[in-house]
Specification:
Layout: E1 3-5, E2 12-13, H1 16-19, E3 20-21, E4 42-43, E5 58-65, E6 68-75, E7 79-80, E8 83-84, E9 87-93, H2 107-112, E10 116-119, E11 132-135, H3 138-148, E12 152-158, E13 169-178, E14 184-187, E15 193-194, H4 203-207, H5 227-230, E16 281-286
Parallel strand pairs: 1-6, 4-5
Antiparallel strand pairs: 1-3, 2-10, 5-6, 6-9, 7-8, 9-16, 10-11, 12-13, 12-16, 13-14, 13-15
């Protein structure tokens, strides 16, 4: 029998163990109106909806493998490389706040964890991406891109809260993950381009390619010390030296909290601005 995961808990982080729920009845921590049913889940990712004219963005039940059926957010609005939608949200970070999902996350958890959510209780399927955060272990990223076969990533960034239709920057790129080499991330630079008028690529695409995944207990960066421990708020990332352009920024305790958010570029200790600098809100999708 599939294990079902309730990913949205009221003002709490949902761990895999805490989030298990019986098949019925649904608990209040589960969105009551997912856009499909547990009986008819998507297979492995949101990718099957790519290019479908009437596909809606929102939460869907997804069967990741024979044992894990989870709720994941599918973006069916963003177009990259002439194909709309089919994006699975695997990581997001909102500016400000404490108790971030990836703070002091160890290597094993950063690879194996099923989607973990942090945010206020949502009583129905929601498109309010500013109401919750998510982190998904890299093992599941691998399964999602293997299923979709496109190996594409989209990074969407906004300098502050507000109208979700008014994000400041977004870009896409072909990428890959190499589990046998420290979960190294690579980007096909010729494929990287801005979306919807964005001209400047994020540092994730331009500077992080070829870096291995690092955590507080497994240091693979190119800095003399541990970037995750010293400067990244304990968050895992493909650090070089150190976190410039990271979706986790400097973490929740650094710089008086003013680098606590997602970065498009740089590591300036300030809240996000429309020019792409500072700590803002960020969403990473893959397909």
């Amino acid at each position: 029998m599939l294990r079902t995961i309730a990913p949205l808990c009221a003002l709490l982080i949902c761990s895999v163990a805490e989030a298990q729920v019986p098949a019925a009845p649904e608990t209040k921590s589960v969105p009551r109106e997912a856009l499909n049913t547990r009986a008819s889940p998507l297979n492995q990712s949101c990718g099957s909806m790519a290019g479908k004219q009437n596909a809606k963005s929102g939460f869907y039940w997804v069967t990741l493998d024979d044992e894990h059926q989870v709720l994941m957010y599918c973006n069916n609005d963003t177009t990259f490389d002439n194909l709309k939608g089919g994006w699975t949200l695997v990581w997001s970070n909102l500016r400000g706040g404490r108790g971030k999902l990836v703070s002091d996350l160890h290597w094993g958890a950063s690879i194996e964890t099923l989607p973990r959510y942090r945010g206020a209780m949502i009583t129905q399927a929601s498109q309010d991406l500013q109401s919750f955060e998510v982190f998904t272990g890299l093992r599941w990223w691998r399964r999602i891109i293997d299923a979709g076969k496109r190996r594409e990533m989209a990074y969407v960034w906004a300098h502050n809260y507000g109208d979700l239709n008014q994000v400041d920057r977004q870009a896409g790129c072909q990428f890959d993950l190499v589990p046998t080499d420290g979960w190294m991330i690579t980007f096909k630079q010729a494929s990287c381009k801005g979306i919807a008028g964005t001209t400047e690529l994020p540092e994730l695409f331009t500077n992080q390619g070829g870096n291995r995944w690092s955590t507080i207990d497994q240091d693979n960066d190119k800095y003399p010390g541990s970037c995750a421990s010293l400067y990244g708020g304990g968050a895992p990332w493909w650090y070089h030296s150190c976190w410039s352009g990271s979706i986790s920024g400097g973490g929740e305790l650094a710089d008086g909290g003013q680098s606590n958010g997602a970065y498009w570029k740089g590591m300036a200790s300030k809240w996000g601005e429309a020019d792409g600098t500072g700590a803002g809100n960020g969403w990473l999708y893959i397909r």
